[in-house]
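From the methods appendix. Each design record in this collection lists the tokenized structure first, followed by the designed amino acid sequence. Records were kept in a plain field format so they could be parsed without special tools. The example shown here is representative of the layout used throughout.

RECORD:
FOLD TOKENS (576 positions):
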């Protein structure tokens, strides 16, 4: 049994696990009406879906860090011995779902001494450097090992050493035992779930977990993306924000040229999450209001005649949307690392289901977006926002903006933009934000928003875009907010007056349109150097950002958060 040395002091652990520093997002409880009102068959299905999600978490912990499972076992042994520091460390481990993370101040949190986060996380060999990675790939391509290189650079493989070379092992093969158990649970859920379409998806997803063939995943994803009127929600989320190794390939001209010559696309590795929930019909109806406008938005995207979009102005919109009351968020989708996922638009552009005519689906997480402390919110507004503009701040407006953001992922170039390397996700998230803002005026003209709601979205989003600290370049979701703040300030979309943000409302949308056009141009051109230059020019932490950050730090001490999943915990204990 492996031993570890805890990295955080008793004082630091007590602080970070205190209620002021570790916020709690509460998911459904066993007495929640959303659960109690379900048909008995769906209640039984939830048991199996929760168990499936929890096993997905075990897989993702191994993808995230080579040492996660051993460290977890160590903590559990120490807790039995009465080690209080191990108990507090386990709270943080469970919250961030791993040993290593960042907090809201962009500080790296390492729970064990001597074990830091690797660029390749747990999907590449521990001792593999960027330079050696590039060198081995070049040698393998020159040795005509083209198929092997394609497997190594697939989004669904774990990379291991094989002599002087590397091999890519499909995660269904690498974790065949776990995937088989998940498949069993999904098939059991399909036996009792009351919705035929949902059951068909579960069976397809189970099949995809038994055979390492992306075609099976494509069929499952295509079916999942078509689901609209189902009582339950289950998703195996596959996103690739965590892999910092694959993106470095575009920095090596020789390797980049060889890959292009042999038509090999380096796709960042997927990390896995398991989402389980109950579809909220009322919330879903509100989401669907935007669907009829999506073709019009597609027509108004910059340079729309130069690329294909997932949303076509001339065809049926293949976009489903559901608002979900959360039961479980396991693995990557539930990792609270300075923040947590509010919603997702899947499958991503690199997934094969989009190539066989599949659509996309937005899932919104109700319990994660809820504001639990209105008093703290008011203190924040008092500290950072012009008092005359408090009337336009509405936390629900941030949800409206998120709806626009998620749908915007279906707009713009359909290809994955892998040639942008490590900037791919920063550029894509920036695009989604700017499209959401850029279309506020158009959607107001079309009748989606009132003039009052237009102002609420613009003011709320601008105020919420300020961070508590400067992020690192590896934090795509935060880097893009700094870029936007810098860009907006230069165009007079906001200013700092007497130490507070004043939003020049009529300048925000034009600035967003301008930035959106620049972003789309970068995605179309797919030039790494151009993306590198654009991010570095705009990722500037200004004195005004630091001023607001200091104020935010005073009114909000939270460094991280955790999930409280009482219903899921109860269901996971039920035996078949």
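DESIGN:
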């Amino acid at each position: 049994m492996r031993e570890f040395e805890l990295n955080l002091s008793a004082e630091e652990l007590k602080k970070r696990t205190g209620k002021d520093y570790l916020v709690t997002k509460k998911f459904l409880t066993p007495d929640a009406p959303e659960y109690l009102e379900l048909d008995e068959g769906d209640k039984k299905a939830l048991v199996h879906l929760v168990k499936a999600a929890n096993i997905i978490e075990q897989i993702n912990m191994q993808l995230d860090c080579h040492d996660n499972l051993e460290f977890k076992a160590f903590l559990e042994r120490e807790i039995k011995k009465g080690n209080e520091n191990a108990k507090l460390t386990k709270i943080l481990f469970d919250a961030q779902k791993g040993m290593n993370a960042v907090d809201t101040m962009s500080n790296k949190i390492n729970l064990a001494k001597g074990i830091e986060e690797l660029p390749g996380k747990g999907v590449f060999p521990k001792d593999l450097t960027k330079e050696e990675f590039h060198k081995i790939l070049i040698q393998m391509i020159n040795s005509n090992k083209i198929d092997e290189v394609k497997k190594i650079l697939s989004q669904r493989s774990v990379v291991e050493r094989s002599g002087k070379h590397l091999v890519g092992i499909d995660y269904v093969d690498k974790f065949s035992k776990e995937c088989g158990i998940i498949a069993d649970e999904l098939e059991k859920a399909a036996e009792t779930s009351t919705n035929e379409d949902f059951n068909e998806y579960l069976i397809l997803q189970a099949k995809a977990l038994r055979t390492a063939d992306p075609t099976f995943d494509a069929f499952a994803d295509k079916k999942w993306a078509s689901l609209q009127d189902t009582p339950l929600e289950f998703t195996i989320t596959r996103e690739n924000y965590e892999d910092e190794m694959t993106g470095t390939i575009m920095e090596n001209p020789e390797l980049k040229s060889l890959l292009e010559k042999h038509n090999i696309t380096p796709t960042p590795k997927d990390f896995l999450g398991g989402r389980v929930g109950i579809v909220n019909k009322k919330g879903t109806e509100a989401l669907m209001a935007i669907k009829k406008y999506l073709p019009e938005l597609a027509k108004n995207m910059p340079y729309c005649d130069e690329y294909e979009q997932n949303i076509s102005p001339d065809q049926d919109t293949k976009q489903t949307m559901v608002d979900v009351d959360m039961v479980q968020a396991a693995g990557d989708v539930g990792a609270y690392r300075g923040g947590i996922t509010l919603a997702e638009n899947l499958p991503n552009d690199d997934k094969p289901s989009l190539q066989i005519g599949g659509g996309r689906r937005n899932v919104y997480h109700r319990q994660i977006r809820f504001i639990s402390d209105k008093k703290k919110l008011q203190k924040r507004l008092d500290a950072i926002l012009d008092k005359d503009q408090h009337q336009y701040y509405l936390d629900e407006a941030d949800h409206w903006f998120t709806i626009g953001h998620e749908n915007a992922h279906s707009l713009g170039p359909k290809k994955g933009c892998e040639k942008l390397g490590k900037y791919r996700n920063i550029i894509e998230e920036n695009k989604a934000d700017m499209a959401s803002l850029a279309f506020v005026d158009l959607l107001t003209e079309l009748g989606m928003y009132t003039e009052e709601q237009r102002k609420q979205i613009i003011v709320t989003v601008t105020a919420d875009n300020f961070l508590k600290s400067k992020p690192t370049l590896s934090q795509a979701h935060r880097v893009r907010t700094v870029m936007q703040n810098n860009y907006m300030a230069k165009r007079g979309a906001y200013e700092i007056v007497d130490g507070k943000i004043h939003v020049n409302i009529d300048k925000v949308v034009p600035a967003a349109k301008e930035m959106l056009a620049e972003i789309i141009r970068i995605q179309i051109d797919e030039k790494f150097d151009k993306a590198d230059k654009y991010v570095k020019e705009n990722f500037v932490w200004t004195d005004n950002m630091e001023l607001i950050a200091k104020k935010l730090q005073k009114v909000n001490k939270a460094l991280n958060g955790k999930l409280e999943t009482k219903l899921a915990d109860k269901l996971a204990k039920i035996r078949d």
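APPENDIX NOTE: The first strand starts at residue 22 and ends at 26.
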